[in-house]
Each structure stands twice: as structure tokens, then as C-alpha cells.
Amino acid sequence: MIPLPLPMHGIGGAKDLPISPQLAITGAVAALIISFSVLALAWRTPRYDGNPDGPVAGRRVPHWMDGVLTSRGFAVAARVLGMVVFLYSAAAAVLGEDLLTNPFFGIFYVWWWIGLVFASALLGPVWKAISPVRTINLAFSKISGSDPDVGLLAYPARLGHWPASLGLFAFVWLELVYPYSTELGPVRLWCAVYVAVMLLGGAIFGNGFYEKADPFEVYSTLIGKLSVWGTHEGRIVVRSPLANLSTVVPTAGLLAVVSVLFGSTAFDSFKDSPFWVRFSQTNELVAGLENGSTIADSLALLVFSAAPALVFAGAAAATMTGPDLRRRDLPAMLAHSIVPIILGYIVAHYASYWFEVGQDTLIKASDPLTTGADYLGTGDWQVNYWLSYHPTLLANIKVGAVVVGHVVAAIASHDRSVALLPPRHQILGQLPLLMAMVAFTSGGLYLLFAA
């Protein structure tokens, strides 16, 4: 078995993309503009937003399937699965060796961060179903005889998703900037702080805290809106991802969450670009500071995490609205349209990384304490490098994911804009948002090639 180093992030960059970057960027921008033109002509009324009896209602699944998915037994099984993985990972983190061969690193950076995205896109809000902090909070409530949904205080609406955005930034800073991110001590400490904050928040505010403030539940739930699974009037339904996406509730801090997710993925490409590597190594100011490279990376990550929100908010502020709609409310109302872009970039940047290092983690997980054990029976498996052996296919997947993500985002933004904007502004009023989408598309593809 060829060991895979954890510090790499699997983006691959130009070596994975045997196609012209100019052609890819031009084609992507053209696809976005053509899509907008078609939408402007053929999509004059909202099809999802504000239409609860339309596509959002979905198609009900068979009664037996609804009974299984909503049953107590299914919920308990999901909770047990989450706790087993949590305890197994905790054993590796606490008792395992401080080496990159410890599977805890792969579980933390690959399975939890990236695998959760793919699982949520296929199955819906997975983390809400298996979250160990929810399970522990439920156990404490059972012991104390309290209701896990009711805390000591009501969660302040003004906080919204702001705590989740801070938690997500803390994670990406640890992964992408902190120089000791592959040492067991700091990662264990991060996880311990996460669990402690989540349990304290759950005790004070009840389960509503997790829906708003748990970074991984918010992340998983947002990506899960692009799955085909939803609920309507208490029943499990199947509906289009666009219909699901339209049900995202505008919340304080929502734009910050999607901005951190989008911007940090872009920074992951940027930090490996020749320009930034050369700057970090040769700039006199950076070199003259103690931990100068870490400070520079931290500032760059902060800029990248804030930039999408600033661009999007600026575009929304330039949008022509009517007297019944305040421009400052538009960013939160349209922030859901960035979620398809996030998923597209996650696929583009991490597909091969997740496929290969995810397998390697499963192999190493069979021996969590490095004692020669083979608890899972996967110890003698070999990593399949099929995707890396097909660079043209991988290139098409990466570029296609970015393009599709932006086109779906344009559709979601258009549908919400048609519902919000006055008829006379429904086309021209969207031009600033279209320009923002073009900037995201060209900038994202440029970074994808530049890494």
C-alpha cells in the first residue's frame, strides 16, 4: 500500500486538467450568460419560491418507506451509528500514536469534512440524524428528565447562523493555515472544544441551538437541500433539488456561512499557487515576522472567506428593487443560490482526494492503535487510483461540476428574484447578480488551474 500524505488537499491543479484553461473559463462564462438569457425569456414567474403546493410539495414516497424513515427504530439506528463512529474515532485520537498513519486524521479531515458533503448531497441532512453531540445531549436530558428541545433560554434570533460561520472558519483555519494541523494534540483539542461548546449550547438553548449554531449541522443541512429528499406536511417527499433549495430560510449569518465555505475552498487552491508560494517565501515583511507565513495565510484566508459575501452583498445592493423590498434584505434572501456553487467547487477540488485518501483512511481505521490489528477486515486492502489514472475524465468532472454549480445557482437566484423584484426590474435588476456569478465562475476556474 502506498501511504498518502494528509497535508495535501487533493486538488491536483493543472496537472489534473489536460484542457485549455482559457477554453474552460470562456465556455463556463458563456454557459452562464446563455442560461441567464434563456431564463429571462422563458422563466417569467416563480416556479418554486412562494408556491408551497407546486414542485415544493414534492411527490410522496410509498407509505412503507415513509414509515421506515420516520420510525423511532430508524432514528435510534442512525444515532447508534454516529456514536459508534464517534467513540471509535475518539479511541484512535486518545490512545493512538501521534503519526500520520493514525486514522483519526483521515476521519477528521476527509470523512467528516468532505465525506459529509457527498453524503448530505445524496441523502439529505445526514449530520442532524447521526450527530453524536445531539445524542449525548439527548442522553443527558433523559437522565435529568428534561426536554432536549427546550433549553434554559430561547436562542436569540439575531445570532442566527453567525456562530456556525465562526465554527466553520475555525475549522478551515486549522486545516489550511495552522502549521501543526497534522499533530494529534491540536486536532484533539479542537474536537474537545467543539464537543464542549455544542453540549453547553444544547443545554442552554435546546436542540434549536444545533440547527442554527452547529457548524457541521448547518453545513450538512445546506448541502442536503440539494438532495432529492424533503418533508412536506409531516411526510417524506421526493422533489427536485431546486425545489428543495428554495426552502432554505433566510437567516442572520447565512451569507457568512456560505461565504466561508466558498471562500475557503478557493483559498485552498490559492495558497498552493506559484504566486502565493513565491510571495510567502520572498516577501521581506513576511519573512521578517515570527510566524510571518502563518500570519499571511491567516489574513489571506480571512480575505477569501469575506470576499464572496462582500461581492454578493454589493451586487444585491446594486439591484433595482421596489418600495416593498429593502436592498439590505436581499443578500440573505438570495444567499441560498450560492449553495450549488459550493457543492460544485467541493466536487472539483476534493473528488479525487476524497476517493483516494478516503480509501486509505478506511484501510488504516482497521488498526486504530497501530498494534497490527485488523478490526474492520480492511487492513490488507489496496487504494484504488482509478480516477488519477483517467486525468481527462477527472478534468471534465472538475470543470463540469463548477459549470453545473453556477448554472443551478443562476436558476435558483433567478427564481427567487422573479418572486421578489417588481416586474419592471426583473431582468435588468438581476444584472449585478449575474456579474457577481461571472466573477465567481472565472475566478474559481482560474484558481482551479493555477494551483
UniProtKB/TrEMBL annotation:
Coiled-coil regions, chain positions: none
Superkingdom: Bacteria
Keywords, in A-Z order: Membrane, Transmembrane, Transmembrane helix
Residues spanning the membrane: 23-43, 74-95, 107-127, 162-181, 187-210, 242-267, 299-318, 330-351, 431-449
UniProt name for this protein: Uncharacterized membrane protein HdeD (DUF308 family)
Organism lineage string: Bacteria, Bacillati, Actinomycetota, Actinomycetes, Propionibacteriales
